[in-house]
Each structure stands twice: as structure tokens, then as C-alpha cells.
Amino acid sequence: MQLTNDEILALDRQHVWHPYSSFLNPSPTYAVASASGVTLTLADGRTLIDGMSSWWSVLHGYNHPRLNAALRNQSEAMSHVMFGGLTHEPAVSLCQQLVRLSPPGLNKVFLSDSGSVSVEVAMKMALQFWHSQGRPEKHRFVALTNGYHGDTFGAMSVCDPVTGMHHLFSRNLQQQYFATRPSSRFDAPFDESDLASIRELLATHSDIAAVILEPIVQGAGGMWMYSPEYLKAVRELCDQHQVLLIADEIATGFGRTGKLFACEHAGISPDILCLGKTLTGGYMTLAATLCNDQVSDGICRGEAGVFMHGPTFMGNPLACAVAGESIRLLLEGNWQERIGTIEAQLRRELEPCRELDRVVDVRVLGGIGVVELDQAPDMQTLQPAFVEAGIWVRPFGRLVYIMPPYVASESEISALTGGIYSVVSAL
Ligand SMILES: *Cc1c(COP(=O)(O)O)cnc(C)c1O
């Protein structure tokens, strides 16, 4: 290593943007030297147990020998080749896996570089589809409050307008419709009145191309887990009103909620599905947008005759090879049992947080545990407190949450839940 820990951090503060960061009021930042299994090793020598899976993405732990080998082998064949007019086994095999595993009907796959881009692609698919049906007026989207779909302009337009600070960008941002998010919890009885808001939007507006939502678990916009009955009803409403359904499973895909895809909780298929984050097991950036044959046929019979999108790094062979191996690893293992075990442990060990003064809610689904506080804590003190406790937990607003890698052991998960309890109780 050329730079000391202090040099890395000094240069970082001087030049480097981080997600949602400020140079004037930088939040505590730590240099990582390496990562293996569920452990991050900091450049200052400390080790942390990772509770974040690097934002949902690391399923099998860091530095996994099988994923390393997939990457190494593919790099020796070819790291990249353009996807216009050329194809290759890693991409074709991955798309076949995705079609096989995803909810029925999704049959065509568009590969792209990041979750946000896969959402842009989904939105463009819906627009081109309705254009081809002679319904170009269907150009708006219905999204849910507290939703999160990414940071590019199209994706941003369907994020929660308040937490997404839409007013800063209003001159450039497409105006969409927002339905109130369902209040019925995942495992509570379904309250029919949850449907009033979306029902009214769909009944009163004829310019809607699609509903876009995160099925079952709203991620970055509020870590909220809602009733499958809502999702089932939205699917029916979309059919009734001739509106497409886009399911954004960028966070929930590949087992995190206890089903391979969250749509399975409701037994529905969307018309368009977005995958990202977990797709390569956290190794590389790669995303996919799947659609059914009705959507793809419509697009291809339309005025353009083609789908109007084509990223330079589309179908990157390194990313596709790792994604394929990550999916094989997942399916070979007992992932559903693992998630069940993690879920039971998170419930057992996070539940005591409910008694703490600052805690207003505790919720768990699959491999996701959330402790909601009464107000946003001061990250300047909270982040170092978690690091002192030897765990990597990064709260967001009022939400302290973890989604450990599936390979996390019982004692590693206990370190996470115990650390959360002691840090939150000291607030
Ligand atoms: C993270 C996320 C995105 C955006 O993905 P990026 O890879 O960060 O662009 C979109 N939708 C959901 C549900 C996400 O969790």
C-alpha cells in the first residue's frame, strides 16, 4: 500500500464525493483495506462485522473463492466486448437463468449498468409500448409515497417527492402521480382502504403508462414492509385500467425477503421487472430489466421498430459471468432455510429494542431488520459509535437497519443486533 490511512482520509476529504455527501459538513468516513466473508478490515487495522451487505448487494460474503474464480476466468477470456451485433455465453446464460427464475411471463432481458438505468429502461419500455399501441397520451407514471427508484432524472421523478427533494429539480423533472403507500403491515390483516388512493388515481387519469413500485418492501425510502394483498390488488387494478405494472426488485431480488423475488409473496407477475444490486452478489455493477412478450412485441412493432436504448457497457462479460456464478451459488445452497434462520434471529434479538426510549418501531422480514427511531440521530456521533462497537451499520434518517450477507453466522448476527441495542440505548 502506498498511502497511509491518514493520507487516504485527507485526500478523500479534499477531492472525493460520496453518496449524498457534503464537503462542508463531511460525515465520518473510514478507509477499507480489504473485505472477506462478513468482515471489513479498515486501513487502520480495525475489523467490522458488516450488517449492510454493501447496500443489499453482497449475498455470499466478500472475497468468495467461487466468485473470484468466475471473475478471473472470464477476464482471461475477455473482459469486455461491445454488445451491438455481438453476443457471448456469459450474457446469454445469465439471461436464460433470469427468465427461468423470475415470475412467469417475463421473457426478454435488457442488461444495463446500474439500478437507476434499469429503471430508466423500464420507464422507456412502458412509454414506447403505449406509443406503439396508438396511445401516446399514456405517458405518466404512478408511484408510491416513500418509494425509492434511483437518482437519475426518470427514476428520481418516481421517488418520494418530499424525501427526494423534488422541488430543487422541479423545472426539469417530469410530474408523476403519487399514491399513498399502503399502511397494512406485511403480516397484519389487509385494510381495504389502503387501495383508495391508487384506485382513485387510476380511475381518474387516462394518461397513465404504468404503475411502478417496490413489491412488499420499500427500501431506501422508508424500509417499510407491506401486505401482499395490496400488491395483488394493484396487479388487478392495472389490468382493469390498461396500465402496465413495473416491479422494482433491485433491493428485494434473489431471496432477501424470504422468496426468490418479492412478487412471489403475492403470486403476481409484473409486466416489467427491474433487478440490480444483488445481481452479481455484490461484485460488480450490473442491472437487468425484464419484460413480457406483450411489451416487447409492442415496442418492436412501434414507430422506431427497435427499443431505443443501448449502453456502451451493456452485457459486460465480467459482470455477467459473476452474476451467473452468484445465482448458481445461491441455488445450490439452502438459501431459503438460511433466510428463515436469519429472520427468526433478527426478530428475537431486535425485539428488545422496542423498549428503548428512542425506538418507535421494530420490524423484520426475511433477512431485513429495521429499528425505527423517534427522530434522526446525529450521524457524527452515531456512526463512530457503531464502529467502536465493531459493526458496520449505516443508519438512514430515523432508520437503523441491517440486511447481513446470507452467510453471516449466528454469532456475527448477534454482534450486529447486540451492537444496535447498546448503541441505540446510549442515545
Ligand atoms: C438502489 C435502488 C435503485 C437504484 O440502483 P442504483 O444501482 O443505485 O442506481 C433503484 N431501486 C431500488 C428499489 C433500489 O433499492
From TrEMBL:
Keywords: Aminotransferase, Biotin biosynthesis, Cytoplasm, Pyridoxal phosphate, S-adenosyl-L-methionine, Transferase. Pathway: Cofactor biosynthesis; biotin biosynthesis; 7,8-diaminononanoate from 8-amino-7-oxononanoate (SAM route): step 1/1. The record marks Y20 as: Participates in the substrate recognition with KAPA and in a stacking interaction with the adenine ring of SAM. It is found in: Cytoplasm. GO terms for molecular function: adenosylmethionine-8-amino-7-oxononanoate transaminase activity. Substrate binds at W55, Y148, K277, G310, R394. Its main location: cytoplasm. Its cofactor is pyridoxal 5'-phosphate. It catalyses: (8S)-8-amino-7-oxononanoate + S-adenosyl-L-methionine = S-adenosyl-4-methylsulfanyl-2-oxobutanoate + (7R,8S)-7,8-diammoniononanoate. Coiled coil: none annotated. The modification N6-(pyridoxal phosphate)lysine is found at K277. PANTHER family: ADENOSYLMETHIONINE-8-AMINO-7-OXONONANOATE AMINOTRANSFERASE (PTHR42684). Catalyzes the transfer of the alpha-amino group from S-adenosyl-L-methionine (SAM) to 7-keto-8-aminopelargonic acid (KAPA) to form 7,8-diaminopelargonic acid (DAPA). It is the only aminotransferase known to utilize SAM as an amino donor. Belongs to the class-III pyridoxal-phosphate-dependent aminotransferase family. BioA subfamily. This is Adenosylmethionine-8-amino-7-oxononanoate aminotransferase. It comes from Gilvimarinus algae. The gene is bioA.
